[in-house]
Design a protein that fits this description.
With 272 residues, the chain is α/β, with parallel strands linked by helices. The chain is built from eleven helices and eight strands. Helix 4 (73-81) links the parallel strand 2 and strand 3 (88-92). The longest helix is centred in the C-terminal third of the chain and has 19 residues, at 230-248. The protein is elongated, with a radius of gyration of 19 Å. It starts with 8 loop residues before the first helix and ends with a strand.
Length: 272
């Protein structure tokens, strides 16, 4: 089953504006794994559930061709409008029906997307299209490990962030719960003997209060909450921003705080 939760134009623009590009640290782990397991040349990378293309563009300098695939026309429209690399193209499609020849893909990636895939159908397609020793890399946020800090504020900011997640908890889908497990079941189901799951890769960033609140709006559970009660969702955002600013003792939502974000990565290599 393909889930279609990110197709609206407003959500696509939010995704492009506020979603994090996967960090260099994670990209380097993926490329090192691919270099070790398969080696050069790196011809074709396919980025599944590519959304507005952040991960696709990150891979572009390292492959002859990158193809981003998503079910959402709106997401793909935004992706194509972003200036990028001539070797990146975007197609409408799903992870369960990949229109690539057998044994043609060097790397399959999915950034914060694999939890939406039909597990068995996706793994069958991955096994089919990957080259011998080709790799898959499925990555995402370990959001339970997120930590915020500003001057002498830390725990209070984290408390606000956790309270927002508690409000949205009833709107959390089973698929998001799969992501929060760091794809444990999907990892177990991967049929390749050569695989590993890195559960937490720490990345230190800075983020403005405005952009942190914007990041919250990109969550599927926030969008579900907004669909049910638009006014309550808007009030949650405004109140959250106000509380962050009060705790930090500042007035500008462009004030930046430190963000320690955890990522996870599932890596696997198809046998020779």
């Amino acid at each position: 089953m393909t889930f279609r939760l990110f197709e609206g134009k407003d959500h696509a623009s939010i995704y492009q504006k506020y979603r994090f590009t996967p960090p260099e640290e994670v990209k380097n782990i993926i490329l090192q794994y691919l270099n070790t397991k398969k080696g050069q040349p790196h011809v074709l990378a396919v980025d599944l559930g590519c959304g507005t293309g952040q991960n696709s563009r990150l891979l572009a300098p390292h492959f002859q061709e990158v193809v981003g695939i998503d079910v959402s026309d709106c997401q793909l429209e935004v992706a194509r409008a972003v200036p990028g690399y001539p070797n990146v193209t975007y197609r409408k499609g799903t992870a369960e029906d990949l229109h690539f020849p057998d044994g043609s893909v060097d790397l399959l990636t999915a950034a914060s997307a694999a939890h939406w895939f039909d597990q068995s159908r996706f793994l069958a397609e991955a096994s089919r299209v990957l080259k011998p020793r080709g790799c898959m890399a499925l990555l995402g946020f370990a959001d339970s490990d997120t930590r915020l800090h500003y001057q002498d504020c830390g725990e209070r900011l984290n408390h606000i962030y956790e309270e927002v997640k508690q409000v949205l908890l009833p709107y959390t889908s089973n698929q998001v719960a799969v992501s929060e497990s760091k794809l444990e079941d999907l990892y177990t189901a991967i049929p390749f003997p050569d695989k590993e799951r890195i559960e937490c890769i720490w990345v230190n960033l800075t983020i403005s209060v405005r952009n942190l609140v914007g990041f919250i709006t990109s969550w599927s559970m926030f969008q579900a909450y907004k669909t049910k009660d638009p006014q309550a969702a808007e009030d949650l955002l405004l109140n959250t921003q106000k509380r962050f600013l009060e705790e930090m003792g500042v007035t500008s939502p462009d004030t930046k705080m430190d963000l320690k974000m955890g990522y996870f990565c599932v890596l696997a290599s198809k046998p020779q």
